[in-house]
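Sharing a chain and its predicted structure for anyone who wants a worked example. Both blocks are below, sequence first, tokens second.
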Amino acid sequence: MDTQQQTRSRQLSPLSREHVDGMLFVKRIREGIGKYSIDRLNHYTRWYWKNHIRPHFFHEERILLPYMPAGHQWSIKLKEEHAYIRDLVLSLDQDADVQAFKSLCDLIEAHIRFEEQDLFTYLEQTLTKEELDNIHKQLEEKPVDAEEWEDAFWT
């Protein structure tokens, strides 16, 4: 992640910074598995979904996808993975267990890597500077600005 973020364009850097936060979320959940109750991990996951992941997905789908050709493999993959992550998070209320959290962490990590290595690279190589600047402007106008989580179980 660090190497990718260093080489990321200024225009897509807000999304890359959110990806760094996403990887931190994954790390916290992985470290919390077996140390803390499933309910505690679920409560944090639901909060993180509402305050970080869901708005991040909204930005990517509403701001990035219009710049891609209809039916492009990366746009299809992005939407499918977003839906799968959403469904997995929402299912935690009924089926939360260690394996569900491990699966969620694996999926989020793989999805972030896909976006950083494939999707963002594609956008940077195919879009004009003006298009990238427009994306950046839209991202800056609607930042993901969440309240602080107070139960820092990972400390």
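Comments welcome. Helices lie at 2-7, 13-32, 38-64, 73-95, 98-126, 129-141.
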